[in-house]
Structures are given as structure tokens and as C-alpha cells.
């Protein structure tokens, strides 16, 4: 198990609920080399006086070198935690998803807000439409299979597609992917309604066309 020790005084933001740990806040990292080199490896985070702060996903290639999963010492980072977080995120927005029209793009998971730092999921086309996912941190990347399984189970949507923000993924030292993770790829352009906006989009890339295409 990796152990991340935070510099004295730098733990205040973490204790206040900020899940991001910047490399400049770290005093030292202890653990086996293979753990340090594994993006998304789970680490115990502690103060300079060795008091437990939380468990985090570690990424040596990012300036945000760790992101807190949990502040509970008795809560392991495992499949059950991922399933609970995804289920809770979906339940939180279930009413808006149910009320969505056929062209509405609605949020399903929103990263830190849902305890899944770096994960963004949007729904388009209802239950038989598409879930568009962005894995923007090493932690959620490491748990991608479990996340997709939970999304399929909790939403009933058969199509899960991964797209990327290239700059963010490169900054995290992660490979660039545009691919179906389950079911079919979305079409190259669809009409999207988002709030009061209506536009044509390539769901696979996020590109918005200059004119609405029918």
C-alpha cells in the first residue's frame, strides 16, 4: 500500500473537503516502485504527524498527484464503493433523466460532486440512447470496468461510449481513446437540446456543428 504524507499545514484544504492533492503539497511517498508507477493505485493519505486523512487514487504523472476517494478509515476502495457511488449519482439525477426529451443531453455523473473525481457521464436519447463518458483522472481510469458495469446495471442503457478531452488526458499521462465500451457507437451527428440551447453535435467527439443539422 502506498502512503502519501502531506506537508505540515497543507492538509487544511483536504480536511475541509477538497479532494485534490497537488504534488507541491506532498512531503513524501512511501511504497513499492511498481505501486508508485501504477496510475490510479490506491494510497493512504496522512498528515506529517501520521494521522489518517483518507484514501486516494495516486498518479505520479499528474500535477494533481492524488485524488481522495474516501475520508473514512473503515471504508475500503473496492468494487462495492464504486458501485455505491455510481448508483447514488444516478439516483440523484433520476428525475431529470426520466423527464428528458428524446434529444436532451442530461448529466448523470459529475466527478467530485459524486465522489468519482474525474468522471463525467451524460445521457442522450433516453434509456435506449447513449451514455457518453469521460475518464479524466487515473483513479476512475483504473476502475473503468467496474464503472461501466455499474452504469449498465443502474441505468438499463445498453450503449456506453468513451470520449476524451485530449489535453486533460495527456496531462494525466493517460492514453487517448474514442471508443464504444458497451453496445454501439453513437451516430456522427445528432440534434441535442441542453437547457435552452439546441444544436447539432458529434456525440463521439463533442464537436458542435455551426448549424443545426436535421
TrEMBL record:
Keywords: Cytoplasm, Methyltransferase, Transferase. Its EC number is 2.1.1.191. GO terms for molecular function: methyltransferase activity; RNA binding. Residues 2-91 form the PUA domain. It is found in: Cytoplasm. It is an enzyme of class 2 (transferase). GO terms for biological process: methylation. Pfam families: PUA_3 (PF17785). CDD domains: PUA_RlmI, RlmI_M_like. Its main location: cytoplasm. This is 23S rRNA (Cytosine1962-C5)-methyltransferase.
Amino acid at each position: 500500500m502506498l502512503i502519501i504524507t502531506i506537508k505540515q499545514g497543507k492538509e487544511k484544504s483536504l480536511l475541509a473537503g477538497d479532494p485534490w492533492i497537488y504534488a507541491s503539497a506532498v512531503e513524501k511517498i512511501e511504497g513499492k516502485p511498481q505501486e508508485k508507477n501504477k496510475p490510479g493505485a490506491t494510497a493512504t493519505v496522512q498528515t506529517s504527524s501520521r494521522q489518517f486523512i483518507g484514501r486516494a487514487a495516486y498518479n505520479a504523472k499528474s500535477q494533481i498527484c492524488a485524488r481522495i476517494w474516501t475520508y473514512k478509515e473503515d471504508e475500503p476502495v473496492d468494487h462495492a464503493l464504486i458501485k455505491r457511488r455510481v448508483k447514488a449519482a444516478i439516483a440523484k439525477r433520476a428525475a431529470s433523466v426520466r423527464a428528458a426529451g428524446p434529444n436532451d443531453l442530461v448529466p448523470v455523473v459529475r466527478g467530485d460532486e459524486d465522489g468519482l473525481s474525474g468522471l463525467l457521464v451524460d445521457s442522450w436519447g433516453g434509456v435506449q440512447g447513449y451514455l457518453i463518458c469521460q475518464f479524466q483522472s487515473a483513479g476512475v481510469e483504473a476502475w473503468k470496468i467496474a464503472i461501466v458495469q455499474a452504469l449498465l446495471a443502474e441505468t438499463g442503457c445498453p450503449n456506453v461510449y468513451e470520449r476524451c478531452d485530449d489535453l486533460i488526458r495527456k496531462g494525466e499521462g493517460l492514453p487517448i481513446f474514442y471508443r464504444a465500451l458497451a453496445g454501439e457507437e453513437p451516430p456522427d451527428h445528432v440534434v441535442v437540446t441542453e437547457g435552452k440551447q439546441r444544436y447539432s453535435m458529434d456525440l463521439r467527439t463533442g464537436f458542435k456543428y455551426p448549424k443545426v443539422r436535421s
